[in-house]
Design a protein that fits this description.
This protein is mostly helical. The protein is built from six helices and no strands.
């Protein structure tokens, strides 16, 4: 093998090794962690103070987070999300559910946080 080919081969192997290692270091959230995060965001956004309501919302999110691990198609995921919203509609007050519907969901929680951050930045005048 030529010297240049060896170098290219070593660099490719190193790149593949780094990619594999990077994927291993990304922690996968458990169903419980995902349910807790979703519940925290919902409780914060809807200003829910009732602990019984918080527990109920957590249990609903937990059930759906566990079922998420078994979903294999996009249509099943959409159906699951619609069922979740239906359950939340029965749990939340009409005003809270209306506020929930107003939260941007196109790109998930990241889009929501980015929207809130941009609104916070617009509301704060720049410092001289």
């Amino acid at each position: 093998m030529s010297y240049c080919l060896r170098i290219v081969l070593v660099l490719c192997l190193a790149a593949v090794g780094m990619l594999v290692r990077a994927q291993e270091s990304v922690p996968r959230r458990t169903a419980e962690e995902r349910a807790m995060k979703q519940t925290e965001m919902l409780v914060r956004d809807l200003d829910i103070r009732d602990s019984l309501l918080r527990d109920t919302i957590y249990r609903v999110h937990l059930r759906y987070a566990k079922s998420r691990e078994q979903v294999s198609s996009r249509s099943e995921a959409v159906e699951r999300m619609n069922r979740l919203l239906g359950e939340l509609k029965g749990i939340l007050s009409p005003q809270q559910f209306e506020r929930l519907q107003a939260i941007p969901r196109q790109q998930g929680a990241r889009a929501h946080r980015a929207d809130k951050d941009s609104l916070d930045q617009e509301a704060t005048p720049p410092q001289p």
